[in-house]
From TrEMBL:
It is found in: Cytoplasm. Pfam families: Pyr_redox_2 (PF07992), Rbx_binding (PF18113). This is FAD-dependent oxidoreductase. The keyword Flavoprotein applies. InterPro entries: FAD-bd_OxRdtase (IPR050260), FAD/NAD-bd_sf (IPR036188), FAD/NAD-binding_dom (IPR023753), Rbx-bd (IPR041364). The lineage of its organism: Bacteria, Pseudomonadati, Pseudomonadota, Gammaproteobacteria, Oceanospirillales. One of its GO terms (cellular component) is cytoplasm. Keywords: Cytoplasm, FAD, Flavoprotein, NAD, Oxidoreductase.
Length: 386
């Protein structure tokens, strides 16, 4: 009989792995442990829920109980793993010690706020990185009982998607960040500015090139001060200034990890025997993609490995589809920085090709009607992890 499998984390990585292992092995004991509610949900849908006015329960495909029942697994929700004792092969959960056979760490990534926030701002300043966060923000919006003024800090994928979604849900949105255009890590500047034009036309307020230097409660309002002295009043603030892999558990246990994540090889094996990692917390052969397709490829490879068929993961040239219906965006950022961007534009319909010295396609970015070209271009681009 195979050793019992214990998975820390019930995001798409943890639950995806349990599901895949179960299809390959119907009897192996599997335990999933999660600090959150352990509901089974798709994280990318969080930034589409406000336009459709979806209450949180509509975003959960199944509860932790239903999940346990469906997969014949043990699910321990609202249970934080405090530490991993690699020598004893045990997890420490408060006063309890839980033995493991094979351990998989799928603890995801955590939002990084730009500065520490005073307790007086609790209930007014948020980040949304899981379904529990969505529940809390949704409740704050509902309690206003009217369209809200929302300031979003951060011009990346999460900030832009929530900006578009909350705007579509009838709220007034201000978007603030230090870069000169939207989606700075995914788009060359002209395309980021085109997305900005679409947001401006829709009535959003954009503050490019600006840092938020202070946030204060002011009566019922929250006041944000920008580095040029401008003040912005809001009902609620959403922080979307990036995510960092949650590596603390691994680091404290002596597992090789760094700011890029827990370091694993292509078998998703960490530096410690019988411990694997995948999803947003894992840096696979030096790459931490933090997107769904690499995560799903990792799930398949690791499930095969854990059921007796050692399999290396590979990532294809998978573009990211940004959910900004005001101007659709697709991006496959080049892995190497030594590229020249060649941009063709017809209004806001833009194609940007990142080429190396020999003219070989290394990545691309598309907006508007040009997003149709994603499949054709991806065929010519190099794999993320070949
Ligand atoms: P998580 O979902 O973060 O799960 C981590 C789990 O670990 C949680 O269950 C947590 O409770 C648990 N945990 C952490 N620490 C402990 C502990 N000490 N003890 C017990 N449990 C613990 N990607 C795309 O490809 N396309 C998209 O369109 C897209 N849209 C997105 C939209 C938003 C708003 C966000 C935030 C992300 C989006 N992404 C998208 C990224 C994608 O959703 C993530 O890459 C993916 O969901 C990460 O899953 P995960 O399981 O690795 O981590």
């Amino acid at each position: 009989m195979q050793a019992p499998l214990t998975i820390i984390g019930t995001g798409m990585a943890g639950i995806g792995l349990a599901r895949q292992v179960r299809t390959l092995d119907s009897s192996r004991p599997i335990t999933l442990i999660s600090a959150d509610s352990a509901d089974d949900y798709s994280k990318p849908l969080l930034s589409t829920g406000f336009a459709k006015r979806l209450p949180p329960h509509k975003l959960a495909a199944r509860s932790a109980l239903e999940l346990a029942d469906q997969l014949s697994v043990v699910v321990r929700s609202s249970t934080r793993v405090d530490s991993i004792d690699c020598a004893a092969h045990e997890l420490v959960l408060g006063p309890e010690r839980l033995p493991y056979g094979n351990l998989v760490i799928a603890t995801g990534a955590v939002p990084v706020p730009p500065f520490s926030l005073s307790e007086q701002l609790a209930g007014r300043v948020f980040s949304i990185n899981d379904l529990d966060d969505y529940r809390i923000f949704h409740a704050a919006l509902e309690s206003l009982g009217r369209p809200a003024r929302i300031a979003i800090i951060g011009l990346g994928l999460v900030g832009c998607e929530f900006a578009n979604d909350l705007h579509a849900g009838g709220h007034s949105v201000s978007l603030i960040g230090p870069e000169r255009a939207l989606l700075p890590r995914l788009l060359p500047e002209p395309l980021g500015l085109a997305l900005g034009q679409a947001f401006l036309r829709a009535g959003m307020h954009l503050h490019y090139g600006r840092l938020v230097t202070a946030i204060h409660p002011a009566g019922e309002d929250v006041d944000l001060t920008l580095d040029d002295g401008e003040g912005i009043g809001a009902d609620l603030v959403l922080i979307a200034t990036g995510l960092r892999p949650r590596v603390e558990l691994a680091e404290a246990a002596g597992i090789d990890a760094g700011p890029d994540g827990i370091r694993v090889n292509r078998y998703l094996a960490t530096s410690v025997e019988n411990i694997h990692a995948l999803g947003d917390v894992a840096s696979v052969d030096g790459i931490n993609a933090m997107y769904v397709q690499p995560l799903q490829a990792s799930v398949k490879a690791l499930a095969a490995t854990l059921t007796g068929n050692p399999t290396q993961v590979r990532y294809g040239p998978w573009p990211v589809l940004v959910k900004t219906p005001l101007l659709p965006v697709v991006s496959l950022p080049p892995i190497h920085e030594q590229v020249t961007w060649r941009i063709e534009a017809d209004g806001e319909d833009m194609t940007a090709l990142a080429e190396d010295e020999s003219g070989q396609l290394q990545g691309f970015a598309l907006t508007g009607r040009c997003v149709r070209r994603k499949v054709e271009l991806a065929r010519s681009a190099p794999p993320l992890l070949g």
